[in-house]
Amino acid sequence: QVQLVESGGGLVQAGGSLRLSCAASGGTFSSITLAWFRQAPGQEREFAAAISGSGDVANYAGSVKGRFTISRDNAKNTVYLQMNSLKPEDTAVYYCGGRTDSTLGLSARGYDYWGQGTQVTVSS
Fold it and tell me: How do residues 113-122 score in pLDDT, each as one tens digit?
């Protein structure tokens, strides 16, 4: 069983930056595809970014491409989401998701493991 714990959320002004972290335990970290999703109040959980187990392939939602960067450190069992040029519409709870196949899927339904989420609030 894989456990995921997010951290790094907070309140930031528009145009600012935040870096989210997701620490994993259990399982073989380098074989787990990891992703960041986000969920605003009253909205469905939406895909933001995903990264392969080796870290050499990544996929981004159009709304964050060019502003967010996903990365992972397999020695530290941690995945990161660097968020730059933040906008008020980026406000959401951000979740780390994991799956044991190699698909960089866009649907939350394909992910087997989830963290508890971390709140990101961007003020205008």
Answer: 999 999 999 9
